[in-house]
Amino acid sequence: MGTYAIAVLPGDGIGPEVIEQAVRVLQTIASRYGHTFTTTSALVGVSAIEAEGDAISDATMNLCQQSDAILFGAVGGAPRYEGPNAKIQPARALFRLRKDLELYANLRPIRPLQALLNASTIKAEVLQGTDFLVVRELTGGLYFGKPSEIRETSQGYDAIDTLIYSEAEIERILRTAFELARARRKKVTSVDKANVLSSSRLWRRTADRVAAAYPDVTLEHLLVDACAMHLIRRPTSFDVIVTENMFGDILTDEASMLAGSMGMLPSASLGTRKTAHGLFGLYEPIHGSAPDIAGQQKANPIAAILTVAMMLRYSFNLKQEADAIEAAVEQVVNAGYRTEDLREAGTEVVRTQEMGRLIAEALL
Ligand code: IPM
Ligand code: MG
After folding, report:
1. Which of 72, 127, 235, 350 could crosslink 354 through cysteines, CB 3.0-4.6 Å?
2. Is there a catalytic annotation at residue 158?
3. Are 240 and 220 in contact (CB under 8 A)?
4. Cα–Cα–Cα angle for 6, 7, 9, rounded to 5 degrees
5. Tell me: the pLDDT tens digits for 157-204?
6. Does an H or E element contain 302, and which?
């Protein structure tokens, strides 16, 4: 039994609805296993810009620093803050959290549930047995490289973004991937564009060097375009995929479709900082704010709920409790309950709150 401090940042769009259900499941775990989870909520994204003048305030950054883990919903989805001329973008909250807290390893597991194989646009026989983990580098590359700007020249406008990686940044994310592969099926696929980009050539060279320290793990190199194809052609062949920030962003949206819906996929962002309980981390469903369905109780809370399972596993070392959440989700899906995103003949479509309640009940 332990006491854990969690900063809760529901954010915008469907963020608050799905995080409410995630917290409900977390508190169900607390009462069943005798833990104490102390949650403190704060604003991020559009709501923070409007109330506090920035996408994430210094006070909220401090709250996060002092917590054992962060539960994050989604930010963005308000066009008035996202046009090309917006001064403060809601996504700045994410970038500041990732960068300032040095959360460089973003883990996105893809394991379609058996009962949802037919919900994917990919054939069930191709999906059967898919179980891989994407390790996306999260604090480097095009997202943070300078310069990044639009410039006025005598010929009109120019724009520049910078893709820069140090060998040390590449090495630490590759080590994370190899360590994780050791506890799985011992295969790492390193994804790059080494036929074109210098940063990818350094990436590939570093991957080969790091691999020498892990003789028990097999390393495969794939070009990112080929990887995009193989993800839907032979998804079962992957175990751990490791890649740079933007490739990881794109490939994980593609990979999410293997699980039937983006509403099923959790993520963890980790660094090296340890708390009294485990690794400090930020936990976030990958789906984003979905403004078109916000406030209607139509969103799928399963990604947010599975995000709590990842938090229990990586930040609190509560493996049994994490397994229990995953089993409860599977039980409810097997019983035929679905949210709108997974509507299918012969199933019962329930609202966000109802899905959260069913999963919490399955835990008791
Ligand atoms: C993600 C999201 C973010 C990203 C956006 C919201 C900035 O797409 O976490 O994958 O590109 O990293
Ligand atoms: Mg993305």
Report:
1. 350
2. no
3. no
4. 135
5. 999 999 999 999 999 999 999 999 999 999 999 999 999 999 999 999
6. helix 302-314
Q: How far apart are CA 293 and CA 283, in angstroms?
A: 22
- What one-letter code names the amino acid at 110? I
DSSP string spanning 216-253?
A: TSEEEEEEHHHHHHHHHH-GGG-SEEEE-HHHHHHHHH
* Options 68, 193, 214, 298, the catalytic residue: 193
Closest C-alpha residue for ligand 1 atom 4: 249
Q: Using one digit for the tens of pLDDT, what is the confidence trace for 117-166?
A: 999 999 999 999 999 999 999 999 999 999 999 999 999 999 999 999 99
Ligand 1 contact via 228 beta carbon (within 6 Å): no
Q: Look at residue 313 in the predicted model and tell me its pLDDT.
A: 97
Cβ of residue 249 lying under 6 Å from some atom of ligand 1:
yes
Tens digit of pLDDT for each residue in 285-340? 999 999 999 999 999 999 999 999 999 999 999 999 999 999 999 999 999 999 99
The Cα–Cα gap between 308 and 323 comes to 11
CA distance 30 to 8: 16
Scored b (16 or more CB within 10 A) or e, 101-131 reads bebbbbbbbbbbbebbbebbebeeebbeebe
User: Residue 106 in contact with residue 251, Cβ under 8 Å?
Assistant: no
